[in-house]
Amino acid sequence: MKIGLFFGSFNPIHIGHLAIANYMAEYTDLDQIWFVVSPHNPFKNKSSLLTDYHRLELVNRAIERYPNFKASNIEFGMPQPSYTIDTLTYLKEKNPTHQFSLIVGSDNLKNFTKWKNYDLILKNHGLFVYPRPDFESENIELKGNISIVEAPLMEVSSSFIRKAISEQKEIPFFMPESAYNYLKEMHFYEK
Ligand SMILES: Nc1ncnc2c1ncn2[C@@H]1O[C@H](COP(=O)(O)OP(=O)(O)OP(=O)(O)O)[C@@H](O)[C@H]1O
Ligand SMILES: O=C(O)c1ccc[n+]([C@@H]2O[C@H](COP(=O)([O-])O)[C@@H](O)[C@H]2O)c1
Question: For the domain bounded by 2-186, which CATH number is listed?
Answer without folding.
Answer: 3.40.50.620
